[in-house]
């Protein structure tokens, strides 16, 4: 698969562990160095802002997709290559996922989890077949890994191998070594 753009879902806050910001900066640097286009939520706050700033610092291209209702709250990033203002969250997720050749999930809150689970659901329903790479910085998603294993053990997943579409990685470089 020829990857030209990456949709990255992450927090509008930085979180309490400095590794989240460090990994986000590394992710942005790698996206730019690999000449990929970043597609993200369009905000300037939190990990979203760190990511966009890192890509831009290395002369990469960044497309932001932000719902009208979040322009003030997430402080729309003003220095992007392209900014698309959309009517709602659902449209944001759909456009981000359509415009990205691969999806990457960094640490984040409820919004990030919502985006992750919607992508997983679309994948399970065969609406798309893109793999989802999850950056498990400092074990942030260890509980999710265990929960997915429990879903599988308890017979709630429609296929027996979620590992084929959900790939957990410990570092940004590991993600780009496995994308394809």
Topology (SSEs and partners):
Layout: E1 5-9, H1 18-33, E2 37-40, H2 46-57, E3 61-67, E4 82-86, H3 89-99, E5 102-105, H4 110-124, E6 132-135, H5 142-153, E7 166-169, H6 172-178
Parallel strand pairs: 1-2, 1-5, 2-3, 3-4, 5-6, 6-7
Helix pairs in contact: 1-2
Number of strands: 7
Query: What would CATH call the class?
Result: Alpha Beta
What name does the CATH topology carry?
Rossmann fold
How many discrete domains? 1
Taken as a percent bin, the fraction of beta residues is: 15-25%
Architecture per CATH nomenclature, i.e. the level-2 architecture: 3-Layer(aba) Sandwich
Q: Which residues sit in consecutive blocks of at least 5 with pLDDT less than 50?
A: none
Could you spell the SSE succession in H and E letters?
EHEHEEHEHEHEH
Estimated helix fraction: 40-55%
Strand order of the largest sheet: 4-3-2-1-5-6-7
Biggest β-sheet, characterized? 7 strands, parallel
Shape: globular
The termini sit apart by: 5 Å
- How many distinct helices? 6
Can you walk through the features of this model?
The protein has 180 residues and is α/β, with parallel strands linked by helices. Helix content is 41%, strand content 18%. It has a single domain, classed as 3-Layer(aba) Sandwich (Rossmann fold). α4 (110-124) links the parallel β5 (102-105) and β6 (132-135). The longest helix has 16 residues, at 18-33.
């Amino acid at each position: 698969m020829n990857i030209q753009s990456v949709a990255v879902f992450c927090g509008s806050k930085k979180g309490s562990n400095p590794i989240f910001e460090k990994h986000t900066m590394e992710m942005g640097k790698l996206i730019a160095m690999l000449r990929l286009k970043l597609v993200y939520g369009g905000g300037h706050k939190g990990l979203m802002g760190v990511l966009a700033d890192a890509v831009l610092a290395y002369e990469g291209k960044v497309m932001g997709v932000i719902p009208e209702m979040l322009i003030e709250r997430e402080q729309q990033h003003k220095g992007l290559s392209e900014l698309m203002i959309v009517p709602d969250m659902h449209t944001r997720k759909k456009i981000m996922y359509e415009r990205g050749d691969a999806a990457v999930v960094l640490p984040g809150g409820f919004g990030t989890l919502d985006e992750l689970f919607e992508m997983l659901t679309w994948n399970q329903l065969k609406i798309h077949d893109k793999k989802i790479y999850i950056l498990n910085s400092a074990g942030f998603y260890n509980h999710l890994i265990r929960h997915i294993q429990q879903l599988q053990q308890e017979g709630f997943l429609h296929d027996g191998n979620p590992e084929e579409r959900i790939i957990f990685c410990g570092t940004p470089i590991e993600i780009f070594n496995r994308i394809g």
